[in-house]
Write a structure and sequence with these properties.
By secondary structure, this protein is an alpha/beta fold. It contains five helices and five strands, in the order ααβββααβαβ.
């Protein structure tokens, strides 16, 4: 009787590590897949005070994106595929490092972020967002 309980006790003390290894492998795979995306981010310095109305004058460079996802630098349409090259070759932009982005409100957030990433990769350090106060939802 005592011998059988000792054998049972020994079997209970052996921990099965296979499920733990499976869980660790799954976590490792998830980490490996998500790690590259953790580095893809855009730093945006948000002002501490409330945003004031910004009226860019004729001297400011304005990049506009309409509802059809067409991109314009001033009045000139630029295909998205060559946007970075055009911005890099723009001597005024490379000197000022500043541009204003005016995007149609119907555009998806992801598309606007994509355009902002292109601007950052083209050397833009100061990005102003131009909005229409009359049509902006509260």
């Amino acid at each position: 009787m005592g011998m059988s309980t000792g054998g049972g006790g020994r079997a209970m003390s052996e921990i099965n590590v296979t499920p733990m290894v499976d869980v660790m492998l799954v976590l490792l795979i998830i980490f490996m897949v998500t790690a590259p995306f953790m580095q893809m981010g855009i730093e945006v310095d948000l002002p501490q005070a409330q945003a004031q109305s910004l009226d860019p004058d004729e001297n400011n460079m304005i990049l506009s994106v309409n509802a059809d996802r067409k991109i314009f630098l001033g009045d000139t349409e630029i295909p998205r595929e060559v946007l970075k090259e055009k911005l890099l070759s723009n001597t005024r932009l490379q000197a000022d490092k500043e541009i204003f982005l005016q995007a149609d409100r119907s555009l998806s957030y992801g598309f606007v972020i994509d355009i902002m990433a292109i601007l950052k990769n083209a050397g833009v350090e100061n990005l102003g967002m131009v909005t229409d106060p009359e049509t902006t939802a509260p």
